[in-house]
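The material for today's practical consists of a large collection of protein records. There is nothing in a record beyond a sequence line and a structure line. Backbone structure tokens are a discrete shorthand for how the chain folds in space. Nothing more is needed to start thinking about how sequence determines fold. As an example, a complete record with its sequence and its structure tokens follows.
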Amino acid sequence: MTGLFICLLAVSVGVASAETWRGLVVAPENRCAPYQASDYSYPQSVEPRIIAEIGKIYGPYTGRCFSSRGETDIEHMVARSEAHDSGLCAADSETRKRFARDLLNLTLAGPRVNRYQKRDHDAAGWLPPQNKCWFAFRVIEVRRKYGLTIDRREADALDRVLSACNSAEMVVGECAPATVPPPARSAEPSGDPLRLYDDNGNGRITCAEARKHGIAPVPRSHPAYRYMRDGDGDGVVCE
């Protein structure tokens, strides 16, 4: 009994003495369970909601205006693997999916930025060229919402940004209004879609074939849609 009391007391002291920063526990990243991207799945259908929140097809990291959804990636400000290593490795599957689809943590970025620059870096490894204050405040808000920890290097990097901030609002540059969903085609082709687009004659139409024939992205209303696989069920293929 005495041993159990000492153990509980040690845990209590450890929690009480944990370093905190802006309401977050400061701790090293810890992968307490294997990371799989499929545990943090999200549908492409969330993208129009992101665009609606911003007001246009716009990348706040670089101030770039995009002409269509096909030019953008859905971007997690706190990367999924980063969140996993900051506490969600111990969370249930519903919490992980809720995190992956939470608009609070989602924005748009060009593929070059999303896939080759930011990737899964935290703020200590990468900061956006523009909208740094908005980004820093949003990272903190997301971490608080999901009870994520933060390591000391990232906290220091965010402190440096926040010391020069007067606002947490996103600054949106001028560009043409977004069209969501993508514009409907003025005239759909007539005839058998398989005859028109199924180049290898296997009874299905692939995204490669759709792009070759200039019909991608393919909405549900297009005759080719029924012969294609809509993996996320959002009514648009090859977006």
